[in-house]
């Protein structure tokens, strides 16, 4: 990559954005599906499914990005999904559908204008039937051809269920050059959805061919400050190990302990990171010491639909978006942020930067690694 700067056209327009913890927990997921370099402590993991509520005030338009897992998944998911979950031993808990969470939080469902689906997987499409028919679905290029009408209407379909898509408009977004709303951000085709620079939908094929991410402007440039953004990565990555550390956001030699239960405690002890860099996959390289602080711990896994493309996405995320202190990365299943974020209906996420979420959350993913190594007697230096 030639340069690592995030170029987003200047704008004073923002959207109001809330992060929803959908109550979904997917437990006992094997890490091998999601990263190529296995590290101790990362055999299986348990993940949430984040969803975003986006409100564009000037047009009074409300969007959702993703819907998590439907509450009735165990009785209504595609048979192949049930078979796979059973075989792998994944356990899924869902307390509430997103529609119920919104209603409980005081949002009227008829006010939801559209749902952006990052991709067709069952842990992202949720249950659109719980929304009035006026809410349309926004999907990525090629989605309709690949995933509609779904099973059982198409007996050959191995993942999508038909009832998810029935009875509402499905708009396939186009990222064709010539549309003045289409540009390129961080190497990704970007659609300026409201035409004012507040919210971009990004074409990010790799995990699946029609995968979509999104970039919301959370605060605008003023008084010499730069705009801040939230990058909704969906399943562009599945673990922070695949995009941290990076050249633009290297691992310091000491960090606040990622294992403390409250990331906001001022008295957090710090730990030395050298035991972590010593187990980095590139540590034995001639410039290993440097690379271990500036290269992600892991590569993406072989289970991605397009592995090279998915790897390029993770690299762009690392250097251009996540490496920028004005961008908060939230991928769908980042369990390391559960203690850091405030979730809907508790306020919006727009002030994430002044609340310190980026800083405090950045290295939390190392907790499992640190705990495991500590269990093996490795000394992280302690101290303050
Ligand atoms: Zn997912």
TrEMBL record:
Keywords attached to this entry: Hydrolase, Metal-binding, Zinc
A matching Pfam family: Lactamase_B
CDD domains: metallo-hydrolase-like_MBL-fold
Segments forming domain Metallo-beta-lactamase: 48-290
MF GO annotations: hydrolase activity; metal ion binding
Domain of life (superkingdom): Eukaryota
Signal peptide annotation: none
Family stated for the protein in its record: Belongs to the metallo-beta-lactamase superfamily.
Protein name: Metallo-beta-lactamase domain-containing protein
Species of origin: Cladophialophora chaetospira
């Amino acid at each position: 990559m030639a340069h690592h700067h995030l170029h987003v056209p200047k704008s004073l327009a923002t959207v109001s954005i809330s992060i929803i913890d959908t109550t979904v927990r997917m437990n006992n997921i094997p890490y091998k599906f999601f990263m190529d370099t296995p590290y101790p402590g990362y055999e299986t993991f348990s993940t949430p499914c984040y969803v975003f509520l986006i409100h564009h005030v000037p047009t009074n338009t409300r969007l959702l990005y993703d819907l998590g897992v439907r509450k009735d998944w165990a009785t209504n998911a595609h048979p192949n999904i049930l078979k796979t979950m059973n075989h792998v031993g994944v356990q899924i808990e869902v307390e509430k559908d997103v529609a119920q969470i919104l209603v409980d939080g005081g949002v009227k469902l008829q006010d939801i204008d559209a749902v952006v689906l990052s991709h067709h997987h069952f842990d992202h499409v949720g249950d659109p039937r719980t929304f009035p028919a006026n809410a349309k679905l926004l999907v990525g290029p090629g989605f309709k051809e690949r995933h509609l009408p779904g099973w059982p209407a198409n007996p050959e379909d191995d993942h999508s269920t038909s009832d998810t898509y029935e009875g509402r408009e499905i708009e396939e977004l186009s990222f064709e050059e010539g549309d003045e709303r289409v540009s390129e951000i961080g190497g990704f085709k970007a659609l300026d959805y409201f035409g004012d620079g507040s919210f971009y939908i990004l074409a990010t094929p790799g995990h699946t061919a029609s995968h979509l991410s999104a970039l919301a402007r959370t605060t605008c440039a003023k008084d010499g400050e730069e705009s801040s953004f939230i990058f909704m990565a969906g399943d562009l990555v599945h673990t922070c190990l695949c995009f941290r550390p990076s050249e633009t956001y290297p691992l310091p030699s000491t960090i606040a302990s990622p294992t403390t239960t409250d990331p906001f405690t001022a008295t957090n002890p710090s730990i030395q990171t050298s035991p972590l860099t010593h187990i980095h996959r590139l540590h034995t390289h001639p410039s290993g010491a440097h690379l271990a602080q500036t290269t992600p711990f892991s590569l993406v896994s072989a289970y991605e639909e397009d592995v090279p493309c998915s790897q390029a996405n993770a690299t762009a995320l690392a250097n251009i978006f996540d490496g920028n202190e004005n961008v908060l990365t939230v991928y769908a299943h980042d369990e390391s942020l559960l203690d850091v974020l405030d979730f809907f209906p508790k306020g919006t996420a727009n002030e994430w930067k002044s609340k310190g979420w980026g800083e405090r959350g950045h290295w939390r993913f190392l907790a499992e690694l640190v705990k495991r190594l500590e269990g093996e007697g490795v000394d992280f230096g302690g101290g303050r």
